[in-house]
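Quick note —
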Amino acid sequence: MAPLPNSEKYKLLENISELKARKLSFEINKIQLPKGHCGNYGIIKHPGAALAVPINDKGEIIILNQYRFAIQSRILEFPAGTLEEGENPLSTIKRELAEESGFTAKKWDELGLMIPCPGYSDEKIHLFLARDLEELSEIPKGDEDEDIEVLRMTPEKLNSIISSGKEALDGKTISAWFRALQFLNLNER
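Predicted structure written out below.
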């Protein structure tokens, strides 16, 4: 998986305030940037996440229609989840794939790292391709607040949805799909 570019650390001058939520925190810090500028900056601190692009042996994509409270709507997105403390990205996405979609995968390929909102968050999402899927007879219990419908669609259908611009999709889903197409050499579709 491609690493981040060389790190250029800022200097923390003062932690002004912090608000902790279930899976993240928001900090306001006075920092000095590498080029010397000082100022107050807000940052969402996130433990990281992992996402899978699941494709079954028929070539169908497994995708979720999931309710998201922040936008008060349902959107299409790939199974994904937050890294738990001490958990590696592959373990996270194996757990999330089973809980959210009811599938496991025997073949996993790394698709790289995505940084969704670097202007205000340190979140990093590890992208994976999940193949050789097996449907579970019993789905593990996931998060209580999840409201998910599992869908199957062809690559052509997903490409059509993305290119039409008529359906809201999140950035991680579009980025992961693009990476999966490149990995599978399916960009002709």
